[in-house]
Amino acid sequence: MGGVRRREDPRPPPGSAGRRRWVGVDVARPGAVRHHEVLILRRGRRRPAKTLGALVKTREATGTSEDAHLWAVGQALRRIKADLGGTHSLDELARVACLSPFHFHRVFRQITSATPARFLAALRIAEAKRLLLGTKANVTTICMDVGYSSHGTFTTQFTRLVGTSPRHFRRLARDLATLPLEEVLTGSVPAGPRRGPPLRIRLSGLPAGHLALVGLFESGIPQGWPAACTLVRGTAEADLRIAVDGSYMALVMSLPADAAVEAALTEVRPDQCRVGSWGPIRVQRGRPAETDVEIVLRPRRVSDPPILSVSPLLAASRRPNGTIPKMREPEPRPAGTDRWGGAR
């Protein structure tokens, strides 16, 4: 039985004349066992386990609950990504993860720092970003493809999470996509307030030749405009000063300095990307509760939220610098098409 390790109970069952009895299941690695492969062998008979929730509880009992939770969340995310335009209820996702809805919601938030609904919205907008940059499909078609039935709702959501409208993002992305990330970002990240005690960010595991973007966001998803942000290179240390009180998550993404902007916009090379997080960080009267934090960078995994915010690139597009191409004017609309490029 692939992935299932059986454990022998030395006590023979009554009337078995010393025949061996196998009980319980233990999985060596998460994701190695499918639902129909989990078996409980008892008194020489095999019967399917009632639910993989039993598997999760087994791994929790053996001290590997994090692996079990990652596996459960990964199953749900694979279902979502297979049909981004579909309607995914909490009950459906919990069923895929083989957990109760209440337990699944708690585990999902613990692993991803976001609720399933917000994570789904982020995945849809991330896919919309990819389609806007990599295809010629008009905004209305992309809106429908990622699960929105209203163009207005999609545009509002996209603008709120990304920081700019779909049409402006497409022009910005196509202008900057092939430029080196370091060239675009140098001098474009806002300096932030000069007063107030700083929050020292130290990065562990920053690869040589990488640069890292560090931002303070209101949730575990890097979306919208951060409360503060900075660019880290070389020393792997930076100071952040926060002007607005609140509770924030420090989120970090690093890429090779010579990587193209497209890699940051659409995550086309996840093997090059390193991420990390720390939080929540509470700020009161401009003073962070913690003044020195260390964030360990690691490779991306399936449970990491997509990177939606493009605020540094928006700042770069507004910078009067000859190395950054100016925004192209919109091309004339062909006759017989609406404002989004679709047929009338």
Based on CA atoms alone, the radius of gyration comes out at 24 Å
Order of helices and strands: EEEEHHHHHHHHHEEEEEHEEEEH
Through-space gap between termini: 58 Å
* Average pLDDT: 75
What is the domain tally?
Answer: 4
Outline the biggest β-sheet: 6 strands, antiparallel
Specify the overall morphology: globular
Give me the number of helical elements: 11
What is the quaternary state of this protein? single chain
Strand content: 15-25%
What is the CATH architecture descriptor of the largest domain?
Answer: Sandwich
Q: CATH class of the largest domain, please?
A: Mainly Beta
CATH superfamily (homologous) name of the largest domain: Carboxypeptidase-like, regulatory domain
CATH-defined topology of the largest domain: Immunoglobulin-like
Biased composition (Basic and acidic residues): 1-11
InterPro entries: AraC_XylS_family_regulators, Homeodomain-like_sf, HTH_AraC, HTH_AraC-typ_CS
Region (Disordered): 1-20, 312-344
Domain HTH araC/xylS-type: 74-172
Notable characteristics:
344 residues, alpha+beta, Arc Repressor Mutant, subunit A, 4 domains, 6-stranded antiparallel sheet, 13 strands, 22% strand, globular, disordered N terminus, disordered C terminus
Can you give a write-up of this model?
GO terms for molecular function: DNA-binding transcription factor activity; sequence-specific DNA binding. This is DNA-binding protein. The protein is an alpha+beta fold and 344 residues long. The protein has helices spanning 53-61, 65-82, 90-97, 101-112, 116-134, 139-145, 151-162, 166-176, 181-185, 261-266, 311-317, and strands at residues 4-9, 21-27, 39-42, 45-48, 199-204, 210-217, 228-233, 237-240, 246-256, 274-284, 287-288, 292-296, 298-299. The strands form four sheets. Strands 6, 7, 9, 10, 11 and 13 form a six-stranded antiparallel beta sheet that branches. It has a three-stranded mixed beta sheet with strand order 8-5-12, with no helix packed on it. The chain is globular, with a radius of gyration of 24 Å. Mean pLDDT is 75; it is low at 1-13, 15-52, 55-63 and 321-344.
